[in-house]
Amino acid sequence: MILEQLKQKIKLRSFWEAGTEKFLLPPKNLTRSSYLSKLSQLQDINVVTSIMGQRRCGKSVIGRQYIKMLWDEGIPKKNILYINFFLKPIADIKAEKNFIAIVEWWIENHVDKEHPCMLFLDEVQELENWDENVASIFEDPSIPCRLMITGSNSKMLTEDLSAKLGGRYTTLQVFPFSFAEFCRFNHISHDMIHLEKYLREGGMPEVLKINDEEQRLQLISDIMNSTVKNDIILRYNPSNPGLLFALIEFCRTSFAQELSIKSISNIILKDMKMQRKQFENRQSTSSLVKTYIDYMKDVYFVYSPETYSYRSKDILKRSVDKIYLSDLCFANYKTQTQKGRLLENMIYIELLRHNYKVQRFLGYRNKNLEIDFYIEKNNQSALVQVCWQLGDINENKMLWDREFGNLYYTNLNIPKIVVSLDEKIDSPYKDVEHLNIMHFLSVFQK
Description:
alpha/beta; Rossmann fold; Trna Endonuclease, Chain: A, domain 1; 3 domains; 6-stranded mixed beta sheet; 5-stranded parallel beta sheet; 17 helices; 13 strands
């Protein structure tokens, strides 16, 4: 009886039945063409495709946009089985035996063998023995379907799945809206006027749909709590959840700042009013902080780039460089003093979005020369320094010397760029270029 009821519910929630297609996509959604193009390029490759990214960043909508695109190309509706494991009415499908039965029922009774078919498993980690079941379907010649899955934990998908499939999977990382997507979603012009609005509001699609500030803040809090409870605590069972939540709040205020693990630990302990005796020692606290930052990176809540240096021993001394937020809607900052860190965070995520390898740069010339980003792509590299506004060189000479001078003294024969909100500025140093943020985005999005 349970299985028969489940079949009927699955039919409705795979959007096969008349009148249900209109619920496939939310009323206000943005077609994310770059991701759909990448999925199309993978459709004839015999691998499992995993769509990864933070909760609520738009993975499911992209998957469903792709389903709509396949329907429009002529694939029969019932040749695509969509299962969202977060839906309570079909919660019974999380049980392994029910899932297997439903997949076999779909293949035997609904798939038109003359056309390709696809099994789309949304938030697959909720399925019992999910990695074994995905690998089994992939290997089973009686189930000749393309497999696409989504999840919110990079380690789960890359380590657990690779253990079962080896290299027979590929990943597509999804980010929240870029500035360009933000403008299209809100039907506003892509210009400097709206850049600060993006820096304040971020690019989480569901958050942007809410106009009421109290409801908006509540949703942001809900996303963070859901990420922590479901993606970190349930998977890793951290020994000190209080420290984990305190670390998350710390990252919301201290993103894009140079801090060591030790200094982070000391600040958090002070804020939590914890006495040293509450931990075995400060070293154990630092170890927990490092572990918890790794957890937060696994679920795409924060990023922490590696450091590039001429001297490897100096990299080993640096326990962490900077922490960047996955989206600026999570930032908790003082507008008057921290706009430069918002811009730096935005540029970092934008570079990742366009497949740049991004590192911090540490060089030497009788003193440390720290550059925000050393970026590489397609065998080309560049150094990038980010500043909110440089202003007049006579009034801000020390700022100009730091932003332009550090790049100049690296003595590397690669492009060196200072990015800011200023209009075009003539650089005081040879081989160092200034780009307005809008110009930088247009160049480095290619």
